[in-house]
Known about the structure:
alpha/beta
Amino acid sequence: MPFRGGTALREAYRRAALRGYAFMANNFAEANTLLGLLDAYASARSDLLLQISPGAAKFAGGGDKAAGLRVLTGVVRTLAAARPIAVFVNLDHFTEGEMDLVDLAVGERLVSSIMIDASKEAFDENVRISRDVVRRARGSGILVEAELGKIRGVEDEIASDDAFYTNPEEAVEFVRSTGADLLAISIGTEHGVSKGKDIKLRLDLAKAIQTKLSEAGLATPLVLHGSSGLLPDQVRAAIHYGIRKLNKDTHYQYVYARTACEFYQDHVAEIIPPEGTEDDVVNLFPGGSWSPNKKVFDPRVVGKAVQEKIRGIALALIEQSGSGGETLGDEEDS
């Protein structure tokens, strides 16, 4: 199935709310993570929500974020075409300083949704910036996610030593004032490496925010950033109180690094020359009898191992979110 736009994503969120599941929103910056995710979600018959951060776009474009954005979304479109699921792309944590990239994504219809992060600003300024992105996306079908509240930790190019919870009373005013389609809230999660057992998760706030929005006639899906360290029970409880999107980035980064680290540790003798061998990499060790083993050092070998590990973790997270078997199938965007 081809990449799907914001119209289909809106329907996917509506179904998730109706049936009581959520989407893990999965960040990626290169092909191995992406392929592992695609395999897992196709196997589970779950629609897949991918995320591209400014840092990922910069990495993929060799320093050029616009080029990287085109590269990553192009790869998604190419690989998604052969999968029996809907595949969506969200821009993650883009800021006011990247409005040129927002305009690019909207103008070329590269993504399904855009997350604008102005959460560090005062309420009125956050409203102004978020509303501006909604205006820029108008007519494209692309959804806009805005954030109210601040999450502690480091996420890509954004860092905060402080955190403050989302105010349920402000949530209604914020959504109405911005016109945002989704609302990211702060209820105790942290960006980066965190442990669910150490997090004081304010599910009462999620419940209160969902209630206030519902009473105001706003069927706004809630988003939880910094969810990589949450335990399964915490994930299920968050979904019960209206969370429809949980961001996963740090989790996959660790799995990637751990898999590569263990693989190379297991094959050190086949990659690193033994003591006494001239370490002549330029000429591939012409002296002595030792040679590296191409069956091991070929990056495609460790790449396949990474893909398989990512696939396994993604399947476990799909089970947590309840999205397995939930796909738009071959329905067309209206």
